[in-house]
Amino acid sequence: YILSYAIFSFASTKFTPYLSKIGYSAFERGIILSGYAAATIVMQLLFGVLSDRYQTIKKIIIVSLCMYGIVSAVLFSAEKSVIAVYFVLVSLSGGLLNACCGLYDTWILGCHEEIRRHLSFIKAFGSIGWAVGSMAASLVISLFSYRGLGISILAIAVLSLLNVALLPDIDRIGEKSKIAADDFKQLMTDGRYVLLIVILLLMYSMVIANNCTVIDKMIDLRATDAQISMKWSVQSLVEIPTYLAGAYLLSKFGGLKLLRLSCVMLTLQFVLFTWAKNPAVIIGVSGLQMFSAPVILIASKVLIMEMAPDKLKNSSQLIALSIFSGISSLLVPVVAGFFSEHIGFNHTLGCVTALGVCSLILTYPLGRLLARHTAEG
User: Fold this and answer.
1) Measured between alpha carbons, how far is 277 from 22 in angstroms, rounded to an integer?
2) DSSP codes of every residue in 87-145
3) CB 3.0-4.6 Å disulfide test: which of 35, 77, 300, 326 passes with 91?
4) What are the CB-based long-range contacts (under 8 Å, 24+) for 15-24?
5) How far is it, in rounded angstroms, from Cα 202 to Cα 324?
6) What is the rounded CA–CA span in Å between residue 179 and residue 93?
């Protein structure tokens, strides 16, 4: 988690500054960044089906990490290419890193109980890697330019692969799992599963807006590359206590209450992002990340695991992730980029705030569906 999330942050936190540096507007950046959302959807759906079909995640991760390292190295070396090239390279790099993040968590959930119980604790080390990587990326760029950043991603990917090779694969439930279309139909007609995905879609749209529109506002406020890196680092560092306490929080409050807490804190965070007048305030407000992204991931994975049948334990996670993270990543950069240019960053962020209110409201019918299913079960 430390090595992989460090190089994931190298690319993810520098997509927007890199595209801005080589001359693309907020709307053009939105178009390019939306490309990797489509790649994320396809990859996560494909990887989810393959992992359940062949009862392996380790092999898929090895191939994905290899491709991610190579593609990212090429991306940050191509400083004079046309927009179509950046669209393809960012789509592949971003899609692979998002897919790998989902695969890593699903890998843990597919292992034996001792490992599975420590999911949130292990994810804390991903946040450490992301925080260190976010700051290290700026240092690498200042010393060796963006080309050096790409080469660094490839080099660390090789180290991460050596680590992955030593780890056991997921526990098998059979040599091959015969998955029929009716299995997926049953999953997608489960009201609890569908409503949870809708809620997560609204919430994750806010996370994506934080990663692109808030960064665009910082650039508009003349934030330095170091300040942008500091924002990413602060977000990652404050996630660590939440992940470390994840098992306790779940046992104490349950997934649904944690989801509601995240809705409230996301809404508050975006109200403050809208009012912020300088980059330092935005960096400070990013500390509320403690109650948003990690809580969403912890609560959603546990809720989905409780809903899904055994033969779809892996694919149910990645299908949900591909929908709520993929669609939000596809739409938000373009839509927010368009509105940012026409009505300004503050009004756009104000509109995003409403998504938090909507998601909070929807958690109450979800609670009723969960209670009804428990009573009937």
Assistant:
1) 26
2) HHHHHHHHHHHHHHHHHHHHHHHTS-HHHHTTHHHHHHHHHHHHHHHHHHHHHHHHHHH
3) 35
4) 15/90, 15/94, 16/211, 16/212, 16/215, 16/216, 16/219, 17/215, 17/219, 17/225, 17/228, 18/76, 18/146, 19/86, 19/90, 20/219, 21/146, 22/79, 24/83, 24/86
5) 8
6) 29
Arithmetic mean of pLDDT over the chain: 86
Q: What are the helix and strand counts (H, E) for the chain?
A: 15, 0
Q: How far apart are CA 29 and CA 356, in angstroms?
A: 25
211's CB contacts (< 8 A; 6+ apart) are 12, 16
Helix (H/G/I), strand (E/B), else coil: 377 = coil
Query: Is the Cβ–Cβ distance between 16 and 215 less than 8 Å?
Result: yes
CB environment 13-25: b (16+ within 10 A), e (fewer): bbbbbbbbeeebe
CA dist list (Å): 154 to 150, 314, 333: 7, 28, 27
Beta carbons of 24 and 15 less than 8 angstroms apart = no
pTM over 0.85: no
**Residue recorded with tokens 């190298």:** 10
Quick check: 179 and 52 in contact, CB under 8 A?
yes
> What SS3 state is found at 310?
helix
C-alpha distances out from residue 294 to 107, 152, 249, 259, 339, Å? 17, 27, 12, 10, 28
The predicted structure's pLDDT at residue 309: 73
- Residue 163's φ and ψ, nearest 5 degrees, are -70, -45
Would you place residue 370 in the very low, low, confident or very high pLDDT band (cuts 50, 70, 90)? confident
Place of tokens 């507007």: 25
* Per-residue CA distances from 43 to 130, 304, 328, 356 (Å): 22, 19, 15, 27
Chain CA centroid to CA 121, Å: 17
Q: Give the tens place of pLDDT for each residue, 281-316.
A: 999 999 998 888 888 888 888 888 888 776 777 778
The amino acid at residue 6 is A
Q: Which of 342, 194, 216, 332 is nearest to 282 (CA)?
A: 216
Q: Given a cut of 90, is residue 366 above it in pLDDT?
A: yes
CB 236, CB 134: distance < 8 Å: yes
